[in-house]
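Example record used in the benchmark description.
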Amino acid sequence: MAMNMTANTSTTSLKITVETHYLADQSEPESERYVFAYTITIQNTGAVPARLLDRHWIITDANGKVQQVRGDGVVGEQPTIMPGQRHRYSSGAVIETPVGTMEGSYGMRSDDGAQFRADIPCFRLAVPGVLH
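Model output (structure tokens):
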């Protein structure tokens, strides 16, 4: 599943693309453990460089259990994304049901000093074939 979204300020514009994949070989449905990988591409479509400072994720399973994840950067990096460039990374999430959602935001700072949050709208984590 892939999803596109954008975040804009007066000088900074980001296009964020999300792709998700169920990892059957790492999951244990009998133990209520469903593992998903996600790949995020952040493209700077604005006029100034922007640095990703932090992340905040809200991960919700089908039972309503919510996990919040906050931290510096992404996968140990705080990348600066130049205009016209993109940063791509992969990470993962573990939930207790075959379907769940993720949403969140990135804390960003553009080279002109503006700080802003780039919101990532809700996207679905789902075992293939569970939803029609």
